[in-house]
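Re: Re: ligand-bound prediction request (bumping)

Still looking for help on this. To restate: I need the protein modeled with nickel (II) ion bound, output as structure tokens. Inputs repeated here so nobody has to scroll up.
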Amino acid sequence: MSLREIIILPDKQLRLVSKPVEKVTPDIRQLVDDMFQTMYDAPGIGLAAIQVAQPLRVITMDLAKPDAEGGETRREPRVFINPEIIARSDELSVYEEGCLSIPEYYEEVERPARVRVRFIDLDGKLREEDAEGLYATCIQHEIDHLNGVLFIDYLSKLKRDRVMKKFTKAAKRGGE
Ligand code: NI
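Reply:
Sorry for the wait, this slipped through. Here it is.
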């Protein structure tokens, strides 16, 4: 396993539409391992492959809450390959979202409260799951990444322009 670099706004790769995975090869398993390590290290609860510059339809997620007693967190790793939302609730819910590619920026986003997701697991098996709460928000946020969509796209133009400007400036400073 190794850490991979997370690409940051305004990197144009974040706008790419990722390609479906044709087969779960050893390279894909390696990518998944690296994504978990990178995600836990960040730390974050979800990561799309494009965030480590791999335009493939692969998502890692772990929604386990840190142990309140300070013990070791029990991990609940989930992998989604070629995920699709196949049903959405009319009911909406609001969560404050953040993104490892837009560090230290959080805003409330409204999305369907429940979704049904179809995906391939690491064994190449087709699966379906119902998601609600944070799981529903997170899977929608990550699938958006596979389509080149970021959570700031749901904000007002004013807010989006402001965050784009801030990160464009920071990138310029970093590049000097
Ligand atoms: Ni994100």
